[in-house]
Amino acid sequence: MCNLYRMTKAKDEVARWFDAIEALGGANFGEEVYPGYPGLVVAGGEIRQMTWGFPLVMKGKSGQPLKPKPVNNARTDKLDSFFWRYSFEERRCLIPVSAWAEAQGPKGSKTRTWLSLPDAELFAAAGVWRESDEFGTCYSMVMTDSKGSDAEGVHSRMPVLLRPEDYEGWVSGSPDDAKALCKPWSGDISIDRTDQPWTRGAASQTNLL
After folding, report:
1. Number of C-beta neighbours around residue 47 at 10 A
2. Secondary structure of the chain as H, E, C letters
3. CB–CB of 76/179 below 8 Å?
4. Domain positions in the chain
5. Residue-wise pLDDT tens digits, 173-184
6. Could you give the CA distance from residue 55 to residue 169 in angstroms, rounded to a whole number?
7. CA distances to 48, 74, 132, 175 from 3, in Å
8. Which residues in 159-189 are b (16+ Cβ under 10 Å) and which e?
9. Closest Cα partner for 29 from 47, 43, 45?
10. With contact defined as beta carbons under 8 Å apart, do 144 and 179 qualify?
11. Superfamily for 5-197?
12. Fewer CB within 10 Å: N-end or C-end of the chain?
């Protein structure tokens, strides 16, 4: 699953890449995107800033409300569940990504392994989005089984990556058409195993439904 990714391009470059309208004004986002933090999304033909993660409302043992947790990954096999269904059917989006990270190594000393597409400075992961009271406009990244892909040796799941010719089918096609795109990436994937500690910053935060 993906709990950290990079997006290193400026918003005007992203707009040109995806042939989208750039109308963000003074948007504020980092090159490394963590759950619960803002990232760029292409939705409705526009580049928009949203919070990464749908809010999962929690309650304590005595029923008191707790701080919502960002559910930043949506499993392909759970897209028909109540939590995801309406967003998947009505509000699909593209998530611009330069690389995504997975944690590898022994517990307590895991490091970051970065995965990207060779010779691609930017690519699109499949996403869903919605409005929320807790986080405002928010999005989640759709995850699929990595079996058979180059990413299989890093993690059992990976983002659904989309080719440019599939963008329209993802955002505007029928739910069945969109589900047909939820499969492991069949092309090459570059893998960069680093000594960067995984728990630096907010990378340790994660939720998957």
Report:
1. 22
2. CCCCEECCCCHHHHHHHCCCEECCCCCCCCCEECCCCEEEEEECCEEEEEEECEEEEEECCCCCEEEEEEECEEEHHHCCCCCCHHHHHHCEEEEEECEEEEEECCCCCCEEEEEECCCCCCEEEEEEEEEECCCEEEEEEEEEECCCCHHHHCCCEEECEECHHHHHHHHHCCHHHHHHCCCCCCCCCEEEEEEEECCCCCCCCCCEC
3. yes
4. 5-197
5. 999 999 999 999
6. 27
7. 20, 12, 20, 25
8. bbbbeeebbebbbeeeeeebbebbebbeeeb
9. 47
10. no
11. SOS response associated peptidase-like (3.90.1680.10)
12. C
Q: Over the stretch 118-168, which tens digit does the pLDDT of each residue have?
A: 989 999 999 999 999 999 999 999 999 999 999 999 999 999 999 999 999
Q: For 19, how many CA atoms within 13 A lie in the half-sphere containing its CB?
A: 4
Residue 170: is its pLDDT beyond 60? yes
> Would you call 43 exposed, middle or buried from its count of C-beta atoms within 10 A (0-12, 13-18, 19+)?
buried
Give me the residues paired with residue 93 across strands: 127
The Cα–Cα gap between 191 and 84 comes to 30
Q: What pLDDT was estimated at residue 36?
A: 95
Please report, as a single letter, which amino acid is at residue 140. S
